[in-house]
Write a structure and sequence with these properties.
With 203 residues, this protein is of the alpha/beta class. Helices cover 39% and strands 22% of the residues. The protein contains six helices and seven strands, in the order αααβββββαβαβα. The strands form two sheets. A five-stranded mixed β-sheet has the order 1-2-6-3-7, with helices on both faces. Strands 4-5 form a two-stranded antiparallel ribbon. A hairpin with a 2-residue loop joins β4 and β5. α2 (25-45) packs antiparallel against α3 (49-61) and α2 runs antiparallel to α4. The longest helix is centred in the N-terminal third of the chain and has 21 residues, at 25-45.
């Protein structure tokens, strides 16, 4: 008894997306390398401002309206300092006919010990550094949005972002901020959490 396989053509939109990803592969790798460099430089001063500003600028370039919200963080030694959390939503506005997903991402310092140039974060087609996975999730989402924009394909959902330094998750500052936004930024009743934010959103 012979097996019969049916080969179906990809939808045009999906083909365009894959083609765009292939065309932008080098650009996306360079973007990730740049993000690692910004994070590694920030590690030296333990200052997350550079990373926040870099991500904020990229979000705006992709058509998002962003706000930087201040959060107080208490360190292990008891010292208190302020950092920023990015709240981002589409500048084109909310489409009532689409569901809304909330994407929460956090980042830590990449811990790159090398003093070398950008290219040395990439060896044998692999990236190295503590916190790479967290940083890569942010870049992957932004690259995905850019592909849709470049291909002029309508996104099937409304998208909102909350992006914060990892240190905020163990402090009450972020929880208090989310509670204060429940009737504003987080008012969408159909806004399920995406990415790695289940524990944070339960707070």
């Amino acid at each position: 008894m012979s097996n019969t396989f049916i080969i179906m053509a990809l939808p045009n939109a999906l083909s365009e997306i894959f083609q765009c990803i292939d065309q932008k592969q080098d650009e996306f790798i360079e973007r990730f390398n740049e993000a690692i460099s910004v994070s590694a430089n920030a590690e030296k001063s333990q200052d997350t401002t550079g990373v926040i500003e870099w991500v904020d600028k990229l979000l705006k370039s992709l058509g998002f309206f962003t706000e930087l919200k201040n959060v107080e963080v208490v360190k292990l030694d008891g010292a208190i300092h302020s950092t920023s959390v990015i709240f981002g939503s589409s500048a084109a506005g909310h489409c009532p006919n689409k569901s809304t997903i909330l994407i929460y991402c956090h980042f830590g310092f990449t811990g790159i010990q090398k003093e070398d140039e950008l290219g040395n974060h990439l060896q044998n087609n692999n990236f190295y550094g503590n916190g790479i996975l967290d940083l890569s999730s942010i870049i992957a989402w932004l690259n995905t949005i850019e592909v849709f924009e470049t291909s002029k394909i309508d996104k099937p959902v409304n998208i909102k972002f909350i992006i914060s330094p990892k240190e905020t998750e163990s402090n009450t500052g972020l929880s208090n901020l989310l509670i204060s936004e429940k009737d504003c930024f987080l008012e969408s009743k159909e806004c399920p959490p995406g990415e790695r934010n289940m524990a944070v959103m339960k707070k």
